[in-house]
Amino acid sequence: MKTKVALTGNEAVAQAMKQINPDVVAAYPITPQTEIVQIFSSFVANGEVDTEFVAVESEHSAMSAAIGAAAGGARAMTATSSQGLALMFEVVYIAASLRLPIVFPVVNRALSGPINIHCDHSDAMGLRDSGVIQLFSENAQEAYDNMIQAVRIAEHPDVRLPVMVNMDGFITSHAMDVLEVLDDETVKNFVGTYVPEDYLLDAQNPISMGNFDMYDFYFEHKRQQVEAMKAAKEVIKEVGKEFAKISGREYGLIESYKLEDADVAVVVLNSAAGTAKGVADELRAKGIKAGVLKPRVYRPFPQEEIREALKGVKAVAVMDRAETFSTCGGPMFADIRNTLYDLKNDIKVVNYIYGLGGRDLRLEHVQQVFEDLENIRKTGRVDETVKYLGLRE
Amino acid sequence: MTPYNPFNRNFGSGTRTKAVRPDMKWHELTRAGNIYEPGNANTYETGDWRSIRPVWNKERCIHCLFCWRYCPDASVIAKDGKFETFDYKHCKGCGICAKVCPVNAIDMVSEDEIEKVKEANKDEN
């Protein structure tokens, strides 16, 4: 049974966590994530969940506690943003390499300094090489849906990796949105019971986790992680199909919006995709063949799907809400260019850095991007590969 | 839960074997480097790292077992409540046993010296 409700992104994620009913949640507050855990704590206090809630002293401890719980055989979760994610950096790599299915929402917020509490993707991008699966959510509905699917993806025997569910800080986390939630029983049945293959609290089968590797075996263990990421691509699609049966909403690796016959396209993550789709619709009404590609999964990177979706497009703009300081553009720009290189066609790919520190992305900005793309398409000339939107320059 | 193809279950995730061999490929090794056989640290002979070794003086020893208690590498072997021997395959030569011995029944001797004596004995035989 589905119910239409009005919730903020944080409330929707807390609701998903309530229905998932994890064994352990260990967390530390940070704006704009705090509400998720705050709301969840009230569920714990009111006895609405069976979760053991551990109020730890830092995010590093939060992920460490989640790892301990997961290694012990429990379904464990945490939540964070920005500096909190940065603080748990080393332990996130541990969670991934120990192959523990920890699901954790990250409310995307800019990394300091200067100190900024508003939305950008620098926090998630900092961990793109950590070996955790990264899902991105355009709105509260997607955040809710992603959380539920994340549990099945993470715990799948061929995957067994942590899953980071991203959503935009304040824009999605604090804005009231309309979404459809499922009933408790349906979610409970969908996520099922966590059946770990290896766990430390198995007295009959003692094992050691988190061991020491020398140069003769470390490489192979990393290769195993790559294989798990490859398997994740298929598992995510399968779980998406199964989720469609209970929700009516199907999820894949990407969302391809009006790209079938598009001449120009924008590639964008999270909430800005909504803005881009709105502008694409306006342009379509004027006869411009505009489309939007929204990767829902950023890690593993859905290279084949993206190549397929963009192969007919003449000019592509990748919009990055994070900087790499490589002086060669943003993180997703590099991934997209890498993906399209082998097409060996004349596709032009440019980059726009936008929205850092919560700088507003306005319709005019996206309109400008599409205008630039149309110029590139017509003249075949790119004057500047990397540009900035809404920057004082 | 739907069964997943085309990968076989556990392929690429690693195995749960109790014996890892150097000729094993990445997918045959244990997942995440997990270890399924307890006590395997014993097979790694850290005694090779030593540059000085403890030598027991039988006459002075009072079998208090302080050395056994303090050894950080479990390399003092005791039997029936008495000192038996040092485990030279694992002793790293830290010298803690010699330091805590209340009767100075342990001398820390350079491995070079031990080598020289061994060589001398070999020449003689």
Give a verbal description of the structure.
Chain A is α/β, with parallel strands linked by helices and 393 residues long. Chain A has two domains: 2-247, Thiamin diphosphate (ThDP)-binding fold, Pyr/PP domains (Rossmann fold); 254-388, Rossmann fold (3-Layer(aba) Sandwich), CATH 3.40.50.920. Helices cover 41% and strands 19% of the residues of chain A. In chain A, strands 9-11-10-13-14-15 form a six-stranded mixed β-sheet, with helices on both faces. A four-stranded mixed β-sheet of chain A has the order 5-7-6-12. In chain A, strands 3-2-4 form a three-stranded parallel β-sheet. In chain A, strand 13 (315-320), helix 12 and strand 14 (348-353) form a beta-alpha-beta unit. In chain A, helix 1 (9-20) packs parallel to helix 7 (140-155) and helix 11 (303-310) crosses helix 12. The longest helix of chain A has 30 residues, at 218-247. Chain A is globular and about 70 Å long. With 125 residues, chain B is an alpha+beta fold. Chain B has two domains: 1-38, no CATH class; 46-124, Alpha-Beta Plaits, CATH 3.30.70.20. Chain B is built from three helices and four strands. Chain B has helices at residues 66-70, 96-100, 111-124, and strands at residues 52-56, 76-79, 82-86, 106-110. The longest helix of chain B is centred in the C-terminal third of the chain and has 14 residues, at 111-124.
